[in-house]
Every structure is written in C-alpha cells, then in structure tokens.
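The instructor's notes for this session suggest beginning with a concrete chain rather than abstract definitions. Hand out the sequence below and ask the class to guess, before any prediction is shown, which regions might be ordered.
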Amino acid sequence: MTSDDSPVGALEAGQAFGELDRLMLGEQSVESVLQEVAELAKVAVPGASEVSVSLVTGGRAVTAAFTGPLAVELDERQYERRYGPCLEAALTGQAILVEDAATETRWGDYTEAASKRGALSSLSTPIGLAQQSPAALNIYSTRPHAFDEHSQQLAATFASYAAVALARGRAGSSAGAWHPQMPTSGARSVEPARPASAFAPRLGSIAAGTAALEVDLLSGSAVMWLSGEFDVATAGVLGNVLQVLLVAPPASKRRLVIDVGAVSFIDCAGLGPLLHAAHGAPGRRVDLVLQGDSPALSRLVAAMDRAGLPLPPLLAPDG
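After discussion, reveal the predicted structure:
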C-alpha cells in the first residue's frame, strides 16, 4: 500500500490502542514497539500518510521507526539542516503543526523541500519528557490542513505509548539508559542545532486537547502537575504518562507527587488512571502522594463515596 492509498482513519483508535495494550504486556523490544506505534498511527490517525519516530540521544538525531520512504526522507532532511518541526517538537516538548507546507514560513528551505516532495502538512508530537531523552512522533500527510484537533489528540495518545516503551527500555538497561541502534535503512544521525528558543525545558510538558500535564524529575522523586479537563478524550494520555513514571528506573525516584489543584473538570474516565496508579504504586515501591485542592475531583470522590464505591486511601475523603 502506498502513502496515497492509505485509508484515512482505517482502523478505529480503540482497536489500535487495544493492540498496543496487548503488545505492552509482552516482552517485545523497544524497537518493535516503536515500529508498531508508527504503523498503527498511520492507519488510525485521520490524515496520516506516513509516520516516523525521531530520537535525540547522545547529541545525535536518528529515526528509530518509520512506515515508508517519505517519512524517513523528510526526517533526514531535517537532520541534515539541523532544524525542522520534528527536532523542535523533540527538543522543546511542544507539539508542532505544519498546516500547509506550501505557505509555511518557518524552517524556510526545509518546508519548501517538503512541499516539493508532496508532504503538504505534518504533525510532530513530543514523546515523553524532553529533558530525559528528546523524541517525537512525526506524522506526515500528502494533504494540506490534514490534522484537526481529534487527530492531534490521537497523536498525543500514540506518543504516550511510545514514551512507555522508551521508559521501559531505559529501566531495563543495565546502564540505566536505552540507546537506539541505527536503522538498517542507513538513516543518518547528526548533531542537531537548537535554536535559541528550543532549549529543553526543565519541565516535561504534554498537551492533550483540553488537558495539560507537566512533570519535573527530582532526585528521588517526580512531581506531576495536572491542569484542565480529564475525561474520556484525555484519560489515555494521563494513564500512559503515569505508567511511564511508575516504570522509570527505580534509582530515579521513590516518590511521585500528583498536584491536582488546577484540574477544572474530571469524570470517571479521567479518574480511572489515578485509581490504577494508586493501586499499582505499592507494587512498584512508589510512594504516591496527591496534593492540591480540586473542587471537581472532590465532588466526584464524594459522589463515589456516597454511592458506597471502594476508594483507595489516597482518594478517600477521610484519607
């Protein structure tokens, strides 16, 4: 199947995430999980023509997974120039959307080359925390204005699965860090030049529709700030980021603090990842702490308590 033949949203997102959930339960390598993330994103994200995963490790940028020659060629063009949307997303931790390469004024000669190659729009979504190991999920389209808000939300969720895979790779490495091998296609890796505005932030930031998450990794602990609305559309990203933090190398943290003070709305779907984390943290030897006052969360917890639903001590009204 060529890029142009790829059906738009041919696979339901729920099916794709189900496939990834099953994959995460197995013993697959980091490389195989990243490749599966790319393949599934290609057929599940509306507008996608080709997909790649870019990693920056040891000061070198490399394409660790890709679905076709268009994606890896455009990645390489950015590595050669040492700038472009995929590198900016990886290094800043912010999603970068190119709506129409033909009229895009950022990264001048790169977007001109992308337009001539037929990639008229792109969406680069940061994977995990920029300060740990800069990475991005890059989705290219042969159509302009291909990625709406729904596509961007799906991309953020696919990126969070990739973040889990990378975190597990780091946790499983005897050196405490996983380093990708060069793809057999011969994709280049070069020293990326960071523009003045693209230094990796102290906080890893992930935006997902109406919600946002920021994480600071400290000595012996991690702190997560939640803000916005957490519902069925954003719960997947929250759950995967929590999983990243719970499976991080044991030496990197023993305490996880979740600040909910800026949560303006949360329903049962949004609460699910917090419940899962509360139940799973002891087995990971993680001390999970909830801080901040969110009236929305308090109302939901009180309603569950009145209904006689079981709550972990972390969330119990008298806990």
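Then share the key points. DSSP finds nine helices and ten strands in the chain. The CA atoms of residues 60 and 199 lie 15 Å apart.
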